[in-house]
Please model this.
Amino acid sequence: MFQRFLFLFLLLGITINLSAQGPWAQPQGKGFFKLSEWWTQFDEHFTSQGRTDPNLTTGVYNTTIYAEYGVSDRFTAIVNFPFFSRNTMNNLISEVNGETLVPGEAINGLGDAELAAKYTFTPQGAKVPIAVSLTLGLPLGENAGGTQGNLQLGDGEFNQLLQGHIGSSFRLGNTNGYWAALVGVNNRTNGFSDEFRWGLEGGLNLAAQKLWVITRIRAVHSFFNGETAAGNTSTSIFANNIEFISPGIELNYYLTPTLGISAGAAGAVYGRLVAASPGYTFGVFLDVK
Model:
């Protein structure tokens, strides 16, 4: 019930609604740097028909460094590096006698990383900035760990995600705000299906401009043009032919003009071959303006 309530709350919370980055470039020599923890734990997953089925309780945890740096006033370099990732599965317990049928397992290591470059076509301060980005997914994470090979820290494939971004800032009375949108195509390898992605995002700057309240929705749709056997097809978040529509909310609070803390959550209101449970994040950031 809590998960369903959270999904509904997140969906209703979207008033102005991207996925990761908007169209704005970091100024030359400036940047945004964040250390965060992301986690999810789930005992249900969405099937290939979009229904939910139970599974052994599974957890995925990523400790990540995220950085944006302005190489020039229009060119931004981006790194997303999960330097510690953990995947766990609980004990399988008999419902008849309470005995442990299969002991739980866990693996630790690097997660799949991303390197991206974003070029903003419009100059700094443009009313409606437009940008394009290319993200390379680096398969650094273990994709077949544990005694049964079903623990994963990555999907084992090198992908290239090309996205277009657009957005704008605005004012509501004395409150600053923004909206942004993206569309993209993700080219995947090793038998995985390619994907179409889109996202919407919006934010308001509250509490004397110290608090950003951001709502977003992300979506992934498979082209179903890969080998169906590629990747886990049941309870992994790294399965092939994953689809989802995921609303989320994020709070960023500035403790000083450059240092802040953030917290967020996101769930899936529709999914295929993906965990049926929210993911949460908490982090600290440095915004060098």
